[in-house]
Specification:
binds S-adenosyl-L-homocysteine; two-stranded parallel sheet; about 35% helix; TIM Barrel; about 350 residues; alpha/beta; 12 helices; DNA polymerase, domain 1; ten-stranded mixed β-sheet; globular; single chain; 2 domains
């Protein structure tokens, strides 16, 4: 059986044609599952009984299992989903003034091995399938249907920043983006979707040609090769000059401003010297720097006590930057933390 949530509209049209069905059935099915939120094929009343019967033999609308839901005082929610093979993944909902944002996982585990990151403590078991990513968004939205405020019932933003490296699961992630962006699908605007990568250069170059205007964030975190090599193994493969030049090509192609993420780690990358090196490194790039307070997950690293000084220094030097506001501190909402706790229990 094929999970319907794994198909882009184009793929579904092709599938319909191969089944001797009219391609417009694909649009109808999209509208039923993403606009009218039906959970069974029998509710698809405009498709004809015989067609529904055929479709039911081929596709499922199976969902993931919600293993755990945690709701924080600030409205942040964290979900642990159980997959068919019993692996677990995490998804986080964040509530902002501008809308409801979901942070999705792209892999079970991660192979990038960043020293400060909880997700990487467990190696990649497998890539997520397209439907497993789509269902993270759809199922969190389903959980919001009882919200009093109608505006809170819809997911308006998606960040691809959960467990896993999205560019290590490139094709599935691109199909996922097309499905959630489709006007007949969840219709989440491209500018409301952000993908974060640790810096897999060939994929950054490929992504520059992806037809949708998705926001790209780079987990930079360190301003020199010496530091970055030490804490982010990917840098030994694609050092800073190579990474930065791929970002310049990306900008040339897309004219889209890039975001640099920078976790402030106590006594490691939070000095004024580091701030100066960072400014020098990104000079001339149309970018935005997102300073992230460290989520203390493994005891080896501490949150910086100098984040405000670092922020002010960048600001004074005309760098567009923000010091990220934190949410969900009380529910282990940093990537990978909940999953690890759950695994440790076993
Ligand atoms: N693999 C991708 C996306 C997942 S990580 C990437 O590396 O960008 C999403 C973001 O959370 C990255 O910027 C990552 O470096 C950051 N992150 C990892 N561990 C963290 C921690 N303990 N505290 C705060 N941010 C963390």
């Amino acid at each position: 059986m094929l999970n319907l949530y794994g198909f882009t509209k184009k793929q579904l049209e092709e599938k319909m044609i191969s089944l001797n069905q009219k391609p417009f059935r694909a649009t109808q099915m999209f509208e039923w599952i993403y606009k009218k939120n039906v959970l069974s094929f029998d509710e698809m009343t405009n498709m004809g009984n015989d067609n529904v019967k055929l479709i039911k033999e081929i596709f499922t609308l199976d969902h993931l299992k919600i293993q755990k839901e945690q709701i924080s005082q600030d409205g942040t929610r964290k979900y642990l989903f159980k997959l068919d093979d019993d692996n677990c993944i995490e998804t986080v909902l964040m509530n902002y003034e501008y809308g409801q944002s979901v942070c999705i996982s792209t892999q079970v585990g991660c192979n990038m091995g960043c020293a400060f990151c909880a997700s990487g403590m467990h190696k990649k078991i497998r890539n997520l399938e397209v439907y497993e990513m789509v269902l993270q968004v759809l199922m969190v939205q389903e959980q919001l249907q009882n919200e009093e405020d109608e505006n809170k019932r819809r997911i308006s933003h998606v960040v691809i920043m959960g467990i896993g490296e999205p560019f290590d699961n490139y094709d599935n992630v691109m199909n996922f983006i097309q499905i959630i962006n489709d006007p007949k699908g969840l219709e989440i605007g491209a500018r409301h979707i952000t993908l974060s990568t640790c810096g897999i250069v060939p994929k950054i170059l490929e992504f520059a040609h992806f037809p949708l205007q998705i926001n790209l964030a780079i987990s930079l975190h360190f301003p020199t090769d010496e530091l970055r090599n030490k804490y982010m193994p990917i840098n030994r493969r694609y050092p800073l000059d190579v990474l930065l030049s791929s970002i310049k090509s990306y900008y040339k192609e897309t004219s889209r401003r890039i975001t640099f993420e920078y976790i402030l780690l106590d006594q490691i990358n939070d000095s004024i010297t580091c701030a100066k090196q960072l400014i020098e490194l990104i000079k001339g790039i149309n970018c935005y720097v997102n300073l992230i307070p460290m989520n203390e997950s493994n005891g080896l690293f501490k949150r910086s006590s100098r984040s405000k000084i670092f922020f002010d220094y960048l600001h004074q030097n005309n760098i567009n930057c923000t010091l990220r506001r934190e949410q969900g501190h009380d529910i282990d909402a940093a990537c990978g933390q909940l999953r690890i706790k759950e695994m440790q229990k076993k």
